[in-house]
Every structure is written in structure tokens, then in C-alpha cells.
Amino acid sequence: MGDASGAADAEKSCWVTLVTKPSYLPGAIILAHSLEQHQSKYPLLIQYTSTLGDEAVKALEEESRNYGRIQLQKVELLLPRKDQENTGSVAERFKDTFTKLRAFELYKLGFTRVGFLDADMAVFNNPDELLESKLPGRDWLGANHACVCNLDHDSWAPTEWHKGNCAYTPLNNPDEVAKPMTPQSRPTYHLLNSGMLLFYPSEELWDKMLDFFNTTDRLKTYQFPDQDFLADFYRNKWYPLSWQYNALKTMRYWHPRIWSDEKLVVLHYIVDKPWERQVGQDGVAGHLGRDGETHQWWWNIYHDWRRQREDDKKSSLVLEVVGKLVDTEKPFTDLIPLPQEVGKPEDVKPYLDISASADMVMGV
Q: Which of 131, 171, 190 is closest to 251 using CA atoms?
């Protein structure tokens, strides 16, 4: 990979996440604690909006005051213009995720290299090698492919979302990384998951991004608003990074060929969140019952955090607030088997770019 970022020690770097609602406070707190457990040398800046509420903000302020890991920044919601209000999102919870783009404004605080991590993530190995990765250029984005296997036949997924079109399906081991895309890559390879992002913020980049945000007519159609926007904005200029840095919890059983518990760096708790429910009997967790192991890992980090805060006797507010937001639902009880086999390299059929072929026939 080309080194366009200059000397590593010339960068001012941070992790950043976003919290817009109290229900994600436990996730952000444990993300910070897991960064501390694995001794990242970079701070976590938590951006939050007024929708978070006073109680949750005060809890974050207490945690930030007592522990140096967290820095706080209040930001405004980033919403599309009226004629582009999103109606295509697959879930109501994604409607305010355009605000994640506020992370690209961190040049205003002097940061020159930023790693965004969703608030529903947790760290299991030191992640600094991710933040110190080099991209082909400073106007590029580092990210992970969207997994489009759709093994459970979700009805909202487009027809092209199947295991033969997933960028992870051709990979054979945990150290293998998907090849960079080209304009001729199959369309699903251009889709990214925005749970983890690596970028170099600048005023020029933000101005271009904001102009695209305010002029494109596609915002209302995005199924995953922020990540579909980024895939459009960074078309042919985002670089695929290892699955280890944005390991969707479903990949443990959807992509067992590449998964490794030992090499996992950042785990992404997509869909239902582990803090909502304890792991049920027989290790059942997640709405399909398959996530008992990974959800228990989150609870282990939580119990470690809670013991430390109880012992130091400085964190009464955050303990109280977070305590009210965890274990609020009954555990899941059913385990639903996968309805089809996981993808294998032989499931990936040759891709023919029909538009390119048509151009060739027409002599374009």
C-alpha cells in the first residue's frame, strides 16, 4: 500500500465515536474501557448530540473527568434537506446516522488522522496498528466491505445480496484481505460497512463532502444512510482493510474460513445489542440465538468495568445511569439454524460487467 500520510509521528490521531441516544451509552462506555484494557495510546473522542439527554451527558462527563481516555464534543445533528429526507432506510435507528459524518470535521480540533468506531463495538486486541495504517492518498478512506451474504434471506436485501457476491467469500484464511476494487469490480464489492473508518480529515475534504451531501439526489434512497453515502462519495477511492478491524458478530458463523477469535481486533455488535439482554440458557443470545459466545465477551468487559468503578468510588452517577440501561429485556430462548450453507470460494462465479461489454460491442 502506498505511503501518502507522511511520518507517523507527524500525525495527531484519535479514535472517535458518536452517541445520539441514551440506549447506546453502555456501548460507548465499554468501547472506551476496552480501548483502555488493550492500552491504545490514542484518546477516544465521543461526539454526542442534544438528543442524548442531560443524564447521559452528565454520566459521560463523570467518566471523562475521572479517566483520561474519553474526550467529549457536542455536535449538531446532520440532517438532509427536506426533499431528501430518507425513506429507504432498512431500520428507523439508521435515520440519524448521517451525523456520523461530523467526524470528518475533526480537523477543526487539530486532528490529522482519525479512526471512527461505532458505539456498538468492543476491542479485543490493541488496535493501534489500524489507526497507523497507510492509505493510497490522504483523500482516500480505509474501511471494510459490507457482508452481503444474506444467508437468512432478509426480505429488505436486494436480489444481488447473496454469498456469491460477497467480497469475503473468496477469502480462505484470517490473514487474507480482499483485493482493492477497480471500476470493473462487481457492484457489491463497492459497498462498505461504516462501523470502522480510517481517514485524514481536512477542511478541503469536509467542504467536498458537505457539498456532495447538499447536492446529491440519492440521500432519500439509501438503505444504510451514512455508509451508502460514503460508498458513493468515495467511489473508487476507498481501500479495503482486514475483517479483523470491523468483525461483524455474524461473520463468526457466516465466514468461518477467515474468522479467528485470537486475531480478532474490533468486534461489531450489529443488530441487537449485547447489553440489552443477558445471555440465555444454553448460551443463546441474539435474535436468532447464535451470538451467545460473542455477547458473553461483551458482558465480561462490562463486569470488569463495573468492578473497577465500584472499587474506586468515584463513579456513582455513571454506574447508576448505565445500570438502568443494561439488561432491560428478557433473554432470547430460541436458536434458529442457518437456512443455507455458508459461502465458499467456488460460489463466486465470474462477473461480467454488462455495461462495459455493451460499450465494447458499440465500439465506445
A: 171
Give the pLDDT score at 86: 65
User: 226 to each of 23, 99, 276, how far by Cα in Å?
Assistant: 20, 8, 24
Burial class (CB in 10 A: 0-12, 13-18, 19+), 314: middle
In contact, 2 and 103? CB cutoff 8 Å: no
Which whole-number Å values give the CA distances from 261 to 258, 264, 293, in the listed order? 10, 5, 10
* Amino acid sitting at position 110: G
Q: Output the CA torsion 132→135→139→141 (10° steps).
A: -80
Q: Following DSSP, what letter does each residue of 273-340 receive, concatenated?
A: -GGGS---GGG--STTS--HHHHHHHHHHHHHHHHHHHHHT--HHHHHHHHHHSS-SPPP---PPPSS
What does the DSSP assignment read for 171-182? --STT--PPPP-
Which range has the top average pLDDT, 78-87, 216-225, 249-258?
A: 249-258
Chain-wide mean pLDDT for the chain? Answer: 92
Residue 70 CA to residue 54 CA, distance in Å, equals 18
CA distance 164 to 335: 26
**Identity of residue 188:** T
Q: Write out the three cell numbers for 237.
A: 477511492
Give me the amino acid identity at 197.
L
What value does the mean pLDDT take over residues 289-315? 97
Domains detected in the chain: 8-362 (3.90.550.10)
